[in-house]
Amino acid sequence: MNKPFSYLALMLALPIAAQAQPTFGSAPRDWAVMYANNDVDPELEGPAHGGRPPHHQAKHPGGELPPYLAKLELSEQQKTAIKALIKTTLGEPGAKRDEFRDAVREQHKLSFSSEFSEDAAAKLIDNQLAEQRRAMLQKAKLDNGVFKLLTSEQQLAMLADMAKRDH
Q1: What CATH number does residue 79 fall under?
Q2: In a domain? residue 127
Q3: What are the boundaries of the region Disordered (predicted)?
Q4: Residue 7: C-alpha distances to residues 11, 20, 66, 126 (Å)
Q5: How far is the C-alpha of 19 from the C-alpha of 28, rounded, in Å?
Q6: pLDDT per residue over 83-117, tens digit each?
Q7: What is the pTM of this model?
Q8: What's the structural domain count of the chain?
Q9: By C-alpha distance, which of 64, 97, 100 is closest to 80?
Q10: Which domain holds residue 85?
Q11: Residue-wise pLDDT tens digits, 117-144
C-alpha cells in the first residue's frame, strides 16, 4: 500500500474513532465506578442507562435443573425431586440478593464517611464472610442431595464429565 495514502486514511479515521461510543452504551461515567459508588439505580440494568452491564441469571433456582445435569438422562421422577430439593434448600430466587446488596452498600457508605473505623469495617466484613460461608455450605449440601438422587451410572457419568472440565 502507498505510504502517503495509509497516513491519510489514518488521519481521517482517528476523529471518527475518537467519537465512537463505548462498548456497553454511552454511560456518562464508567459503569464500574458508578456501581462501586452506588450511583446506579438497581432497576436500570443496562449500561446505556448508566447502569451496570446485563448479567445472565442462573436458571436453576427458578425451577430449572442445574447445568451439570444437562447431559444426564433423568427420569421425570428425578427431575421433580431435584426441583423440589432446590426449592426447599434455596427458597425463592433472589431472596438473599437484596440483603447482600444492602450489606455492600453499607460497607461503601462506611468506607467513604467521616465515621469510618477499622473495627466497624471489620465487623461488616465478618458478617459478609459469615453469610458467604453459610451460602457456600448450603450449596454444597444441595449438590450432595442432588448427587444422592442420581443412579450410580448417572453419578459416574456426571463425575466423568466434571473431570473433563477440570483438565
Answers
A1: 1.20.120.1490
A2: yes
A3: 42-65
A4: 6, 20, 54, 58
A5: 14
A6: 999 888 887 666 677 788 888 899 889 999 899 99
A7: 0.56
A8: 1
A9: 64
A10: 65-166
A11: 999 999 999 999 998 898 899 999 999 9
